[in-house]
From TrEMBL:
Pathway: Carbohydrate metabolism; tricarboxylic acid cycle; isocitrate from oxaloacetate: step 1/2. Belongs to the citrate synthase family. This is Citrate synthase. NCBIfam families: cit_synth_II (TIGR01800), PRK14033.1 (NF010636). The keyword Transferase applies. Pfam families: Citrate_synt (PF00285). It comes from Plastoroseomonas hellenica.
Length: 378
């Protein structure tokens, strides 16, 4: 007699898996808060470092707290000679997401507190990851192009240093501001797939490097963080704004996914898109190249008219990063540099009130049967 299948929420759609005090997504108003602050207000009033502090401590820092936080981040940016050798040995055509995942695993092995999963040690490790991941991402990117890595500069703030290690120079303030805004918007988003992965790893008692490496693996997929690079490939495939509508019709005919559109939680618009679009438009002005944003506008209009689907954060972030001069394969690793803050906050929260994450599966395979000896199997 077969039992009735229980109510299965495929993809865990609509399931509350735990409580969390880090951020709140409100799809009914298309809004998002970190620690009670609207994300668009944080973008205008705070820096990425301040937001990182907020996510890890629950409060925005005062001037002295920020200074200490920044000093610690600046002091931890350099990679060990051994890790630099590992990065040098990586295949030239390795995807930077695989490179950063491997670098984080290696950092875990050489971490001075490897094996210590106390809250205090996890927090110190998170700071080392925040500081070192950009250096590793930039070194892998430069080496893949035959360029030598650029050493991080402890005299520079976080965002300026990021451009320094990638390009060997710091751009104008408008570019830094747009990048800083993107880092704030990408920092945290409740129980998305990569964060839930990091929490699941943490729930087993494993250390933060394992949780972050697993989070990076989850983020790489095109349905999640990998969409920001896919968006730019898509924009480059479309000849221009005049062809965008017919290009989309071709996608609809094949029932293909249009990258950078749709979201599991937001069904009437991603809270972060207006702010990121504003700064992507500013980048288009600074660079003097409007074609990507013009094509984007047509795609967004037609997707809404024909499919009632809104863009997600990856849609404006893709062209914004392209206009900032980043190579397309670097877009999702930049997301990693930001999301390490949210992932780590969830690692701390999971660790503080842990229960092993272990749901059930409903078996649909062959009923129990005898094992035939090898000689009797056809
Ligand atoms: C930072 C981030 O991770 S944001 C997400 C980035 N990912 C992308 O941009 C990839 C493209 N988007 C998608 O694949 C999806 O929208 C996801 C994975 C983000 C969300 O998936 P779900 O919550 O499972 O959405 P769901 O599949 O229920 O979508 C509802 C309908 O809209 C369609 N749809 C959703 N997104 C898209 C899209 N981008 N292009 C075309 N159709 C889409 C689905 O095919 C589905 O149609 P159906 O009802 O005829 O089957
Ligand atoms: O929340 C999600 O499912 C995906 C997302 O937008 C994010 O992680 O920023």
């Amino acid at each position: 007699m077969s039992e009735a299948t229980p109510d299965i929420k495929k993809g865990l759609v609509g399931v509350y898996a735990d409580v969390s005090a880090i951020s709140k997504v409100m799809p009914e108003t298309n809004s998002l808060t970190y620690g009670g602050y609207a994300v668009q207000d944080l973008c205008e009033e705070a820096s990425f470092e301040e937001v990182a502090y907020l996510l890890w401590h629950g409060e925005l820092p005062n001037a002295a707290q920020l200074k200490a936080f920044q000093a610690e981040e600046r002091a931890n940016r350099a990679l060990s000679p051994a890790l630099l050798r590992v990065i040098r040995e990586m295949p030239r055509d390795a995807h930077p997401m695989d490179a950063v995942r491997t670098a984080v695993s290696f950092m875990g092995m050489e971490d001075p507190e490897a094996g210590d999963v106390s809250d205090a040690a996890q927090r110190r490790k998170a700071m080392r990851l925040l500081a070192k991941i950009p250096t590793a991402v930039a070194a892998a990117n430069r080496l893949s192009k035959g360029l030598e890595p650029v050493a991080p500069d402890p005299a520079l703030p976080y965002c300026e240093n990021f451009f320094q290690v990638v390009f060997g120079r710091v751009p104008q303030p408008e570019v830094i501001k747009a990048f800083d805004v993107s880092m704030i918007l990408y920092a945290e988003h409740t129980f998305n797939a990569s964060t839930f992965t990091a929490r699941t790893v943490t729930s087993t008692g494993a250390d933060i490097h394992g949780a972050i490496a697993a989070g990076i693996a989850a983020l790489k997929g095109p349905l999640h963080g990998g969409a920001n690079e896919a968006v730019m490939h898509m924009l480059k495939e479309i000849p221009g704004p005049n062809e965008a509508a017919s290009w989309l019709e071709g996608k609809f005919d094949h029932k293909a996914l249009v990258m950078g559109f749709g979201h599991r939680v937001y069904k009437s618009g991603d809270s972060r898109v207006p702010t990121m679009t504003k700064y992507a438009e500013k980048m288009a002005e600074v660079v003097g190249d409007r074609r990507w944003m013009e094509t984007s506008r047509v795609l967004a209009r037609v997707m809404l008219e024909k499919k009632k689907i809104h863009p997600n954060l990856d849609f404006p972030a893709g062209p914004a990063y392209y206009l900032m001069g980043f190579d397309i394969p670097l877009f999702t690793p930049i997301f990693v540099c930001s999301r390490i803050t949210g992932w780590a906050a969830h690692v701390f929260e999971q660790g503080a009130d842990n229960r092993l994450i272990r749901p059930l599966s409903w078996y649909t395979g062959v009923e129990q049967r005898p094992v035939k000896p090898l000689s009797e199997r056809g």
